[in-house]
């Protein structure tokens, strides 16, 4: 099985076999990151452009590092420091990058569907780094990789996603990917932060976190966005922390074998206590490292697999 597609836009239209190919490739990529010389020539001569219309630290840095570890030429363009700030359209910006020889365009944009629009209009491969509240496939893949690395097979695991499900591209992408690999996925949060008809995504839905935590293998805690409270979607930060915050008491209840995850950045003391984030059950730091490996795998599969005599050694 091979990743036979020009672009990688989300997990909603990706097969189980393709997901497993990406995860398997990431194992080899993570091995590269443990070496003394953390670099291979796989994408030498290829150009990767990171086109970010939204602020980003972890994802942008991770893609930069992933491309450089594969020896690609990397350019990073942000909205504030380019012609985008002067009103240039997304398509015109991308066409300019393509003329300059881009092989892969990594895009983050506030509009759902922006990555798909770009992919339909340029010949370079497009990799979705987050489009509005729609999808964030590389975050979901690194989450799934982290689960598999620690717990083994995904099939049959009980995974709980906690927080603002309605506005979370991370939640959507995790649900798509985990369901395809056979996990039992549940979501928990205030009713006001649940999408309409969320049950149609084949998940169990809870508004009582303590009930949702029973017998879970993995708890993935989403960052609460302060502007949601300003819009009245939940009464107060203090109340959210008490009802939906992952604290030491709840951590003890789920047991020592359960995993704690967070896509970052964290609001310590709100959705997650520091004692939980820094506990032995937490893989939050490892998620960051796994993110580089996953993004290396995708860049390789999209841009590097056709190179003759490819070498990961």
From TrEMBL:
This protein's UniProt keywords: Pyrimidine biosynthesis, Transferase
Reactions the enzyme catalyzes: carbamoyl phosphate + L-aspartate = N-carbamoyl-L-aspartate + phosphate + H(+)
Binding residue positions for carbamoyl phosphate: 58-59, 108, 136, 139, 264-265
Enzyme Commission code: 2.1.3.2
Residues where L-aspartate binds: 86, 169, 223
Family from the record: Belongs to the aspartate/ornithine carbamoyltransferase superfamily. ATCase family.
HAMAP family (UniProt xref): Asp_carb_tr (MF_00001)
Family matches, as NCBIfam families: asp_carb_tr, PRK00856.1
Protein name according to UniProt: Aspartate carbamoyltransferase
Organism: Halanaerobium congolense
Gene coding for it: pyrB
């Amino acid at each position: 099985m091979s990743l036979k597609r020009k672009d990688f836009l989300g997990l909603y239209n990706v097969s189980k076999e393709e997901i497993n190919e990406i995860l398997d490739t990431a194992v080899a990529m993570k091995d590269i990151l443990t070496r003394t010389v953390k670099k291979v020539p796989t994408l030498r001569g290829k150009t990767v452009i990171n086109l970010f219309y939204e602020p980003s630290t972890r994802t942008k840095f991770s893609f930069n590092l992933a491309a450089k570890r594969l020896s690609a030429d990397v350019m990073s363009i942000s909205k504030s420091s380019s012609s985008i700030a002067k009103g240039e359209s997304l398509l015109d910006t991308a066409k300019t990058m393509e003329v300059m020889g881009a092989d892969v365009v990594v895009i983050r944009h506030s509009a759902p569907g922006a990555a798909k629009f770009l992919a339909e209009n340029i010949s370079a491969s497009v990799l979705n780094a987050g489009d509005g509240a729609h999808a964030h496939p590389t975050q979901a893949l690194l989450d799934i990789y982290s689960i598999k690395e620690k717990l083994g097979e995904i099939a049959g695991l009980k995974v709980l996603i906690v927080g603002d499900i309605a506005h979370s591209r991370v939640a959507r992408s995790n649900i798509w990917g985990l369901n395809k690999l056979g996990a039992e996925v549940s979501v928990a949060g205030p009713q006001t932060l649940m999408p309409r008809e969320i049950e149609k995504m084949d998940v169990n839905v809870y508004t009582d976190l303590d009930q949702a935590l029973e017998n879970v293998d993995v708890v993935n805690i989403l960052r609460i966005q302060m502007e949601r409270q300003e819009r009245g979607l939940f009464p107060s930060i203090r109340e959210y922390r008490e009802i939906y915050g992952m604290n030491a008491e709840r951590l003890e209840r789920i047991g020592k074998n359960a995993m704690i995850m967070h896509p970052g950045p964290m609001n310590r003391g709100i959705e997650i206590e520091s004692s939980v984030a820094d506990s032995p059950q937490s893989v939050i730091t490892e998620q960051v490292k796994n993110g580089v490996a996953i993004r290396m795998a995708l860049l390789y599969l999209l841009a590097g697999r056709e190179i003759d005599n490819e070498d990961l050694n």
